[in-house]
Amino acid sequence: MRQIQSSGSVKAFFLNRAELIEKTKSVAQEAGAVFPHIQEILLFGSLASHEQTGLSDIDLCIIARNLPTNPIDRLKLFYGFLAQRLSIALDLLVLLPEEKESHEEYLKKAVVLYSKK
Q: Which residues touch 56 (CB under 8 Å, ≥6 apart)?
């Protein structure tokens, strides 16, 4: 997924975007099976918009029902599961279905990795 090329004192970092998205999609499908209250998992940010660099992370948004009100408690439900399976830094946003609309600005270019629909 992330490749490093070194030449003396210079290091270059590269991401294999297709491989990383395929792995992330596989993990998203697994999460959808393990956590039945997940409705959707979306990839957004630089990977979704083809603007990634060698140091980019994965930006995921989980839409799920029956979530705690506290955003930190929401993250705790899923972060460990995802971080153990993805070998790259992860930013996670966890929303109720009715909260999705208020985040449309940065989710409008999102790639659907999992959908219960």
A: 15, 45, 46, 47
